Structures are given as C-alpha cells and as structure tokens.
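Private note to self, pasted from the team thread so I don't lose it. Backbone tokens:
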C-alpha cells in the first residue's frame, strides 16, 4: 500500500505538471492571462514570484515559474494567504480523488482543473461577483475594469462643492487600471506630501480610484476642507467619482482580514487594524510597514495621510501623477465653486437617472440628470422657486492629452490644480466669475466643442459595445452613423473611427467632405463623401480585429467644418486630415464604444 500511495503521489504530480504546461501554452492568445499562474509571497521579505501550483508534500510546495523552471518552496516561509490557499487546494484534490473511487475498490484517478489566482484577486473578487468590477492579468500586471460608480450614495455631506456630479467612467479595456503583480522596492521612495497631487495613487476593492488627500496646492486637506462626502469621496472635474481617504466601509464586503485597496505600486492597503485584529504599530512615513506573514503593506489611518502617504514601491511620476493610468471621460467643462452650498441628498435609479439635493442658505435646489443611450447627458437645474434650466452635453473629445477628472489627461486629482501651458480641450480650470444665485452658470462652449452637436450609432448596444457584424468577427461592414446639431456655418462633415493604443493612435476609417445637408451614413455606405486612408494605407473601412485580452475602447468622432477639406488622393490619412482641419473645425463630438474579440 505504501508503494501504491507513493505511486499515486507521483502520478498526481506528473499530471498536474503536464496540465500546467498545456494550459500555459494552449491557444497562443497573444498575451492573455494564464489562469493557472498566481503570485507567491515570502512572509519575511515581501518578495514575490509568479508560478503555477504543481503539488505540495513534506512541508514544501512545487511551483512551475513562468519561464518553465520548477522551484520547491518551504510552505512555512510563505505568507498566510498562500498557506491557506495551499491547504484549500490540497483539500480539493483529496476530496475529488476520494469521491471518484468506483464500487469495485480500484482507484480511478481524476485530477481537477483548478485555476490559480494571484493574492490580489482576493481583494477584488467580492466586487467581481457583484459585477462591479472585472479583472484579468498578464505576466507583469493585474488589470481592473470598472465604471467608478460605487454601490452607496454619493456626495452627501459635502460643504465645499465645485458643481461636479458622479458619471460612469470608461475604465475598461486598455483604459483599465493596472497594478504591478510583483512590487519592486523603490531606490528613492517618494512622499505624497510633495508628489502625486494629481491623479490616483491607489485603487479601492470596488474599482473606485483613490487620490492624494492633499490638493495640488500642497497644503489643503480635502477632508478638513469639507470637500468629501460621508464615504470620503467626491467628483473631479470630469464628473468622475473617487475617494481621498481610506474606504474602510468596504471591509463589510471584503472582510476585515483582507486589503480594502491596492496602491499603484502593487502593495496592499489594509484597514485600521492588522488582519488578525491586533493594533497596528510602527508605521513609516508612508503609512506602511513589514510584518511576519504579510511582508510590506500599507494601513488606513484616521489622521493624515489616511491611506498610503507615498510609495514604498517603484512608480513612475509624470507631470505630478503616477504614469500610466486611465483617463476619465468628461462630458462638460468645469464649473466654479458654488459658495455656501451643502449637499444633503442623493438618489439614483438604475444608475441611469440621478438627483442631487443642494441647500444654499435657505434655498433648496436640485441637479437632476439623465444618461441617454447615445452617450449624452441631460441636466435639469432646478432653483429654489422650481424654475428649471435644462442643458444637454455630448461626450467630449478623448485622445492623447485629453481627459476628464481633476487632472490633465487622467481621471482626477486636486480640484484646484493650476493650468498647464497647453491645457487640453476638456475641463479648463475656471473659478471666476462666481455662479448666478438661482442656477449653475451655463457652460462656455469652446471653439471646437458644441454641446448641441451629438453623434449616435445603432451599431452600438446599451452595454456600450459594438455589434460583431461591424468587426472582423462578422460582416466587416462599416457601421451606421447619425449626427445632429451641427452649428450654423457648417459646410462639410467628416467622420473618423480611431483607437488609442499604448504607444500610438490608430485609424480604422476616415470619411470627409460629406455634404452639410447629410445627417447620417447607412451601414456599409461607400458612396457618401470621400473615403480617406486607414492605417493599412487603404481607402476604406478597416474592421476592428482586436488582439489580446479584454475589451478595447474605440472612438467615433464627427467633425463639423467651415469648408471642404483639400487633401491629395493617396495622402489623405487621419494625421494629414487632423492637420488640415485645425483652423476650420466649428464643432466635434465623440462617441466611445467597446469591442472584445470573440473567443
């Protein structure tokens, strides 16, 4: 029997090893995450390795690393979470094999395909089950997708309001949040007291970003200034909701022994106590420390810095923020503060319609807004006398250097950031003149963004994804496009379908010199206007054929032009087109959509 037991152990180990190798190579999916790979953490140093579980025996676990080598690790040297994971794995394999013994007493060996997940996934998994986030990984990063709309009321309690409201954000596809799977200790750690006043520094378990609690003036605490709601959040200039202090309320869902967030350097952020409930001691200037079994991690505190007060790990700072990180999708320009306002109510129905109650002195006002299927947002500003002022805003241009939020080119930061030398068309910082007494000031229209100019497409569903018939998974037909509200003086219209890749901007379709009397293109229209070159140097529609894991974000931009565009045939690329229309663009409107390659 001893020989049989040893033989069985060897067979299990061999099959698990083969299964791991097959899973690591099958499909050739150009970088898709291998579900068998997990992150293993050494308790004493906090160091990590990546690899797939093979077997565990005699106090050791065998791990096949991503380069194919096999290492044997003493289980006692691993973090507590890894030890618990190994125990569960061993119990599952044992149960499966015990339950598959046939009645004749002979042993039938069945090994379950039990995919592994990195430790960071345990933080986001509860909200993935609630469909609030989606996550994936590659060999370097853990990616989190969300719309940044938490499942709790927002804005209530704010006494210093700059008239922003929560809107869903496009943090998905290649605009998702990314967190290093293997944190690297920084040679020169940077403090949040003097850096990172713009953009996010961490991501909460529910997919809501967390920003530096200090505004970019380097001294104002957003919590003490009355800018945060009862959950420690507010909205940026792109109407993007985010936190500025630790979201400890998330422990009710993730558990008090789990991280509530991850800093963008890859280290976890726990609540006010250690996972075992003991008191936190010996935090460094960044609100972090190393403990046996966990390695380095940050903690929430009730006093500044509230969250990670900087980065123990390595990050890249560009223009005052961690780079790269997602961009927010604002629809309107920033408004000045509404002095004396206090937000006392918030209601939402299916996250499609919202109502914010605002007290200004003895006057009660409301901001009611509605998300339209074409991506535009209708606002009804109701003053204390019940008078309603309505405004509708369309999705704004999103491209390199453009974005919503409280920072330039990203999702947010300090509300009072100074302008850069060349601010993008989104959200120019404006504080004066003060708003009128009875209603928020109407937005000032920029020369290239008209709030009445709207683009829509029946090819895009309510979930924001394009039908497969307009991609390489289907008919490869060009999508139907409709627009309305072109400003007076429009002489021609142009359409561009494009995508921002990590290192370049790609063009899939360009149609220009569409007559001003035309307000739509039908499916597969090849006769209206002049068709320019796509990035394959062909005049025509290049259907999306996305590679890699996850949905990608694409954009349809419609331009209203004051003249026809003169471009040499064969040289009419998107780059040449954008250069040619710099001084003749009256308005432009952009519709974002997602596409994920069929499996």
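Design output:
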């Amino acid at each position: 029997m001893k020989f049989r037991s040893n033989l069985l152990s060897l067979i299990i180990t061999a099959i698990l090893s083969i299964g791991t190798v097959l899973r690591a190579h099958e499909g050739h999916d150009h970088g898709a995450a291998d579900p068998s790979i997990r992150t293993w953490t050494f308790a004493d140093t906090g160091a990590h390795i990546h690899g797939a579980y093979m077997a565990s025996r005699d106090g050791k676990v065998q791990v096949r690393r991503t380069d194919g080598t096999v290492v044997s690790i003493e289980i006692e040297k691993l973090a507590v979470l890894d030890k618990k994971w190994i125990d569960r794995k061993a119990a599952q394999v044992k149960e499966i094999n015990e339950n598959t013994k046939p009645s004749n007493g002979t042993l039938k060996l069945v090994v379950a395909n039990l995919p592994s997940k990195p430790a960071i996934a345990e933080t986001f998994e509860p909200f993935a089950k609630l469909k609030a986030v989606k996550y994936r990984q590659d060999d370097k990063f853990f990616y989190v997708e969300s719309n940044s709309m938490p499942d709790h009321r927002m804005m209530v309690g704010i006494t210093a309001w700059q008239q922003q409201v929560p809107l869903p954000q496009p943090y998905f596809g290649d605009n998702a949040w990314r967190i290093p799977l293997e944190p690297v200790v920084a040679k020169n750690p940077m403090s949040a007291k003097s850096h990172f006043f713009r953009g996010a520094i961490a991501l909460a378990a529910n997919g809501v970003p967390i920003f530096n609690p200090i505004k970019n003036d380097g001294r104002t605490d957003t919590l003490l200034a009355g800018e945060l709601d009862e959950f420690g959040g507010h909205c940026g200039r792109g109407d993007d909701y985010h936190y500025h202090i630790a979201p400890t309320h998330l422990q009710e869902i993730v558990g008090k022994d789990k991280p509530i967030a991850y800093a963008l350097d890859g280290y976890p952020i726990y609540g006010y106590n250690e996972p075992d409930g003991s008191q936190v001691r010996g935090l460094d200037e960044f609100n972090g420390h190393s403990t046996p079994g966990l390695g380095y991690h940050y903690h929430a505190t009730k006093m500044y810095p509230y969250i990670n007060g900087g980065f123990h790990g390595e990050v890249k700072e560009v223009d005052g923020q961690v780079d790269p990180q997602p961009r927010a999708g604002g629809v309107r320009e920033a408004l000045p503060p509404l002095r004396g306002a206090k937000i006392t109510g918030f209601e939402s129905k299916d996250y499609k319609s919202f109502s914010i109650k605002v007290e200004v002195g003895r006057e009660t006002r409301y901001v009611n807004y509605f998300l339209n299927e074409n991506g535009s947002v209708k606002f009804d500003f109701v003053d204390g006398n019940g008078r309603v002022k309505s405004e509708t805003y369309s999705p704004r241009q999103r491209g390199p250097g453009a974005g919503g939020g409280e920072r330039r080119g990203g999702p947010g930061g300090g509300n009072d950031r100074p302008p850069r030398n060349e601010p993008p068309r989104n959200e120019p910082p404006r504080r004066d003149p003060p708003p009128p007494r009875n209603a928020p000031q109407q937005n000032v229209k920029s020369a290239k963004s008209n709030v009445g100019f709207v683009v829509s497409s029946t090819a895009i569903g309510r979930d924001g994804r394009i039908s497969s018939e307009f991609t390489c998974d289907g008919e490869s037909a060009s999508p139907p496009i409709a627009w309305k509200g072109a400003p007076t003086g429009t002489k021609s219209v142009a359409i561009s379908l494009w995508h921002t890749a990590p290192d370049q901007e790609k063009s899939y379709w360009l149609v220009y010199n569409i007559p001003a009397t035309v307000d739509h293109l039908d499916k597969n229209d090849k006769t209206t206007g002049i068709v320019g070159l796509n990035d394959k140097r062909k005049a025509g529609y290049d259907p999306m054929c996305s590679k890699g894991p996850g949905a990608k974000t694409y954009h349809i931009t419609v331009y209203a032009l004051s003249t026809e565009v003169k471009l040499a045939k064969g040289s009419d690329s998107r780059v040449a087109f954008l250069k040619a229309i710099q001084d003749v663009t009256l308005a432009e409107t952009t519709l974002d959509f997602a596409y994920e390659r069929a499996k």
